[in-house]
Amino acid sequence: MYSIPTPAHDTLIRDLVGPLRGLCIKQIGRSRIPEFVRFAYDVFRLRLRHADNWKPTREELNECILEEVSYADHGIYGVVEHTSGKLVACTRGVRWAPGIKFVSERVFGISTVALARRYGIQPEKIFHGSYIALSAEGLRALGYSSWQERWVLPILLEHCLQAMQELGARLFIAETDPLIEARFRRLGVFWQPVSAFGSYMGQTRVAALDVVDLLSSGFSFVPESVRSVAYPGTSSSANR
């Protein structure tokens, strides 16, 4: 199971089977956080290659790596990995703690403490999500179809959100963009805007998901027809 602080070594969460055979979900260890950040940046670079207002430099990448390493005591880093060792999807959640300033605060001015007051919860119940990334090109190169690709990120996000809830999360906030929000809408998930759209890494805003409301309703990101063959023995109710 996922744990905080981030462990020294990888933890296998689940092997995927059926149409997603060859892939597994892992919580990566501290030593792989730089690899995690580089993978996400490569995905973002391709997705935002036409966005003139985001041209990442090596210095920015190194700063992000150092920042993520500093979060290791407070976060979980989830990935989908192929048996070849290649990452194909990732996301992470970091629990707020005194002294931590998320991108939502540094760039958008959204105070985590003020946001907690607005929702009537403790700041420590807020997890900041970032690096929500899927390499469609990487999956295709490994022989997976667009149908198979469609479910990789939802399965990872569902597992990570469940883990965050078990670790005390009430609110999940992230910097989203129209593409990310559209993907979630197709799954029946609607982000609650916290800020207006800005120009950070393309057209981005801070948005929130109420983790408890979302998961306690029996909602699943993945239909039972996919779950039963991708990781049998589970159901939308069994994982709540």
Note down, in words, how this protein is organized.
This protein has helices spanning 33-47, 58-70, 103-106, 112-119, 136-141, 146-166, 178-186, 211-216, 224-230; strands at residues 11-15, 23-27, 75-82, 87-95, 126-134, 171-176, 192-193, 205-210. An 8-stranded mixed sheet has the order 1-2-3-4-5-6-8-7. Helix 1 packs across helix 2 (58-70). The chain has 9 helices and 8 strands. Strand 3 and strand 4 form a beta hairpin. The chain is an alpha+beta fold and 240 residues long. It has one domain: Gcn5-related N-acetyltransferase (GNAT) (Aminopeptidase, 3-Layer(aba) Sandwich), CATH 3.40.630.30. The two termini are 14 Å apart.
Concise structural overview:
It contains nine helices and eight strands.
Could you name the CATH homologous superfamily? Gcn5-related N-acetyltransferase (GNAT)
Major β-sheet profile: 8 strands, mixed
**Radius of gyration, CA atoms, in whole angstroms:** 17 Å
DSSP helix fraction: 25-40%
CATH architecture: 3-Layer(aba) Sandwich
Q: Overall mean pLDDT score?
A: 87
First-to-last CA distance? 14 Å
Q: Tell me what portion of residues adopts beta-strand conformation.
A: 15-25%
CATH topology type: Aminopeptidase
Structural class: alpha+beta
Shape: globular
- In N-to-C order, the SSE pattern is EEHHEEHHEHHEHEEHH
Strand order, sheet with most strands: 1-2-3-4-5-6-8-7
What are the low-pLDDT stretches, counting only 5+ consecutive residues below 50?
235-240
Let me know the number of strands: 8
Instruction: Tell me the name of the CATH class.
Output: Alpha Beta
What is the count of distinct domains?
1
Q: How many helical stretches?
A: 9
